[in-house]
Structure formats: structure tokens, C-alpha cells
Amino acid sequence: MNAIYDHVGMETLICKGLNKEYEPGKYALRSVSLSIPASGIFALIGRNGAGKTTLVRILATQLMPTSGSATIDGMDVVRDADRLRESIACVPQEARLIGWLTPRQLVMSYLYWRGFGKAEADDRGMAALRKLGIERFANTLGRALSGGIKRKVLVAAVMASEARVLFLDEPTTGLDPISRAELWGTLQKLKKDHFIFLTTHYLEEAERLADTIGILDNGRLMAMGTLEELRGMVRYPYSIKILSKTGVEKPKHGELIVGADGQKQIVTTEDEANRISTKLIRAGVRLSMSPLSLDDIFYYVVRKPIEAGDNNDEEESW
Amino acid sequence: MRRNLGSRVMASVLVNAVYTMINYPIVLVSTILAPFSLLIVIAFVSHGALLPVAVGGAFIMTMISSGTSMQQDLSHLKNDFKLQDMVVSSPTGAAVYFLGMSISEIVYSLPVIAVLVVLASIYVHASAVGYLMLAAVLAIMFTFSVALGFVLSTISTDIVQSWAFAGIVSTVISALPPIYYPITYIPMPFQYLAYLSPATYAAEIMQEVVGAGIVIFSGTTLTIDWVVIIAVTAAMLAIAVKKARWRDP
Ligand SMILES: Nc1ncnc2c1ncn2[C@@H]1O[C@H](COP(=O)(O)OP(=O)(O)OP(=O)(O)O)[C@@H](O)[C@H]1O
Ligand SMILES: [Mg+2]
């Protein structure tokens, strides 16, 4: 089906010094550079206003960069936009199902815009609605559907298309936990022959799904890599969360962190974590030990700007 | 790659006209009524004398309204549903989207056009050439209006802003010009103002055709009228296809 993409070397996403300045001096992206294989799933995470949507819209040819360049499969998002648009599809963050359309009508219309004929549009559209478990709402008017279902309809539309590269800006926002897990399953299957570029605030989602994770903060790409690579960025890759309300001491090799909610956490090396946790368990302290989660890493990466902004004077150096 | 133009045009017609009319038939009543308010007033006030001119005016008005509704429909789809962004990231470009949406506005206007055709067949008497000229003027005004509407919709960021655009456009393009009555009815300095709108030139041609001698225009005036509406429309069309804000700056 994707015969023209058979040259694997072509499947890349490259950004070079991408800047976006909405108003003079107000940067939403600052020299974002990256080069990744355009296959599997890339998850972009970052706080509200970090610039995720801005980056998605530039790559999906909806927004002009102020400077810098980006190419997908060798096609420049500005110069080769017409050609690129043949192979991309996007669900914008704030896209909504039109109230006077049924899911089936919306999905089919979207496929018509992509150039499919009636029979094929209907087959593909219904198959996508089925995959997302919303086939039974296919003929219900949008205005009578719940928010999460409406969101899934748009995901179904782009899934049903022929596009190899899918941009999903917060696809699971508003989905219940079961629907979210189901969508994850669908994306896992789709990623075999698609490149999915998604943004999310659910770090568990990025952790579970993504082959590569990017952390954007204040317009800058702060970190990028597999979860393992991101763990490698922090000095101590193991975490012990103290569940009891007991006092614990700062370890020799590691840090003791008190979170915003008062929870104590020790970050340290794997060996040290084993030693400390054995000791604490013997002393009757309830705890959970694990490699650093994406949450921990995210907090580590974006912490400095938060502190600067919130005037949080806790002293922690991981 | 799939380049089925028919499908891509049909998508716009379905979303913006067919499904709307099926789900909200009330919109049909509103579009049918729109051109009649002034038509009725003019017909009564002139004791029927201006009826043919007013019917012709209602035709022109319907074409202009198509552009205004196009602007608001597209602004709604773009800003409230982010539909345009989805289409931008697809093989359908600005020109095809514009074409499809223009046709959707024609489909939308079909009922009112049908009513006006019936009225015209009763009150308007013109030669075959006259009817052809009328059809040409209407096609040109339609093209001008939808092109303007499209351009405005693509730069709108909000439906409220779009309503403001629509208000300004309808005042300048359609309230000022003598669409339902001869331009000679407008007191002198204000006639110049009317000539700022392309609708005035279209109305002069229409009045020459249907006016049955109520107003007489010189050959030069009519030539200028044709040149103006064709030139303005060609320019607006070029802007719509080449310069509409398909990708945000
Ligand atoms: N059209 C615009 N004009 C001016 N500034 C904008 C515009 N769109 C976004 N911004 C600004 O650019 C920055 C990045 O916004 P963006 O929407 O990309 O963030 P985000 O990471 O997607 O946030 P969220 O998680 O809340 O969706 C923000 O400071 C935002 O205020
Ligand atoms: Mg966003």
C-alpha cells in the first residue's frame, strides 16, 4: 500500500533550527532541531503553552515557521507542502465533530476530501469506526454524542485515510480510561505501517506508546530519545517513593526530594536503591521502588523554568 | 495518488449544504426570505412600477448573500471545528476547497433561485440575449461574492469577527448600491459612493435588461459596467485562489 515509502532511508523527520515568533519577541518555538526516523510513534510532551501545537501545526503544513526548516520523508513542509499533503493527516487539538453531521458522514466527507470514491470511503470509514468501537454511533447526529465519542470520530477519520504520517494533537484528551487503552491498542497496530506524531499530557501514554519521546519546554526541545535514553540523562535512574509518613535520611549517593504534595522520594543508583529499600522495609516503612518514570524525568527536565516561574525555593539537585 | 476532483468537491457540498439543509430545514426558510424584504417594499412603494427591477435586484442580492453566507459558514467550520486545518493537511488545496464550497452555496441558494425564476417569468420581460446577459451578470456577481467571502473567511480567527466582516461587506456591497431601484433615485453626491461597489455596475446592466425603459443607460456606461465587474471579479478570484490564507502566517 505504501510502495513509495519502501526506501526506509527516506522515512525521516528532520527539523533544523525551527523558530516560531507569533508576535515580535514572543517565541513559541526556539531553534528546535531534531532528526528521527519517521516511523513508529513519536510523543511530544510539555507543559501548557510549551509549543506542542505550534510544532504540530508547522509540521502538518498549517502554520508557517518564522525561520528554520523541517522535512518529512525528504519533503520540505513549506516548499514541498503540496506533495507532502498527499501523505499526511492531522487531528488538530481543538477539532470537533460538526453537530449536524453523523460520524459516518464526517468520516466519509473527510475521505472524499482526500479523493476517495463513495464505496471505498464507506468501507474504510466504517472499518475505522469499528476499530475504535464506535460503529453503533455511526448514524447518530454529532450534537447528540458525548465529547469523547466526538473526539474518536476525528481520529477514525484520519486513521481511515491513506496518509502514512498522522499528527494527533492530544488524541486521548477527554477519553475514559478504557477508551484510552483501546485507542492505544489501535495506535500500536497502526504504527506498523504509519508514523504517528502525537502530543499528550498523559505521560503514561507517552511511556507506553512512544518509540521516541520529546520534551518541549518554553519553545525549546529540552530532551529527546527513548525512555531509556531519557533516564540516562538524569544522574540517578532509580526512584523509591516513601508511602509512610516517616522521616527518611538523604542517601549517600542520591537525593531526597519532597514533592509539591509533600511526598518524599529518594532518587539514586540501582544498587543503592536495593540497599536502601531493604533497610527501610525492615524498619517497617511502606515504599515503592522503580526505575524513574517519565513523570519523574519530565519533572526533572522542566523543573527549572517551573521554579523560576513559581519562585519555589526547594533546593534539589538530582 | 488519488485525484478524484468530483469527490473532493462533493465533500464540501455535502458538509456545507446538503447535510445542513437535511438537518436544519429552517435555514431554507431564512435564505428564501432574505431577498424578499426589500423586493416587497420597493414593489409596494412604487405601486408595482419597479417590480421587474426589484425582481432583478433580488437576484443580484441572492448572489451577494451567497458570498456573505460562504464567509460565515467557512469561518464557523474553520474556527469552531478546525475543519479547515484538517483539510489543509490533506491533498485538497485552497482552490478545490473554494470550488466545492462555492458550489455548496449555489446548492443552498437553489430554492430561492427557483422562487425568483418563477417571479421573473411573470414580471420580467426581456429578449433571449437579455436573459443571457442577466445570467452572465449574476454568475459574475456570484463569483465575486464567494471569492470575497472565501478570502475573508480564511483570515478570520473567530466567528464573531466574521460577523463583523459580513456586516461591513453587506453595507458596502449591497446596502449602498441601487440594486432594487434605479441609480437616478439616489441624490447626487451619493451616486459616486454607490459606484464604489461592483454591485452598482451589475445593477445597471440588469436594469438595462429588465427595466423596460424606466432607466436608459448609454452604450458607453454599459461597456464600462461590464469591464468593471469582469475586472473586479477576476482580481478577487485571483486573490482567492492565490492569496487566501490557507496556511497561517
Ligand atoms: N495564534 C497565536 N498567536 C499568538 N500566540 C500564540 C498563538 N498560538 C499560540 N500562541 C502562544 O504560543 C505558545 C505555545 O502555544 P501552543 O498552543 O503551541 O502550546 P501547547 O504546548 O500546545 O499548549 P497546550 O498543552 O496548552 O495545548 C503559547 O505561549 C501561546 O500563548
Ligand atoms: Mg496544544
Tell me the total number of β-strands of chain A: 14
Q: For the CA atoms, what is the radius of gyration of chain A?
A: 22 Å
N/C terminus separation of chain A: 48 Å
Number of domains of chain A: 2
Largest sheet of chain B: none
Instruction: List segments of chain A where confidence is low: pLDDT < 50 over at least 5 consecutive residues.
Output: 1-8, 305-318
What would you report as the Rg of chain B, rounded to the nearest angstrom?
18 Å
How many beta-strand runs of chain B? 0
User: Could you give a short account of the major beta sheet of chain A?
Assistant: 6 strands, mixed
Q: What distance lies between the first and last C-alpha atoms of chain B, to the nearest angstrom?
A: 28 Å
Question: What does the model show?
Answer:
Chain A has 318 residues and is α/β, with parallel strands linked by helices. Chain A has two domains: 2-231, Rossmann fold; 237-291, no CATH class. Chain A is built from ten helices and 14 strands. Chain A has helices spanning 52-59, 81-84, 103-113, 118-131, 147-160, 177-190, 203-209, 227-233, 270-282, 294-310, and strands at 12-23, 26-37, 40-45, 67-72, 75-76, 88-91, 165-169, 195-199, 212-217, 220-225, 238-242, 254-258, 264-268, 287-291. In chain A, strand 7, helix 6 (177-190) and strand 8 form a beta-alpha-beta unit. Chain A is globular. Mean pLDDT of chain A is 88; it is low at 1-8 and 305-318. Chain B has one domain. Chain B is built from eleven helices and no strands. Chain A binds chain B through residues 57, 60-64, 81-82, 85-86, 88-98, 100-101, 105-106, 109-110, 112-118, 121, 141, 154, 157-158, 161-163, 167, and chain B through 1-4, 7-8, 10-12, 14-15, 19-20, 23-24, 77, 80-83, 85-93, 97, 247-249. Adenosine-5'-triphosphate binds next to strand 1 and helix 1 of chain A. Adenosine-5'-triphosphate is lined by residues 22-23, 28, 46, 48-54, 93 of chain A.
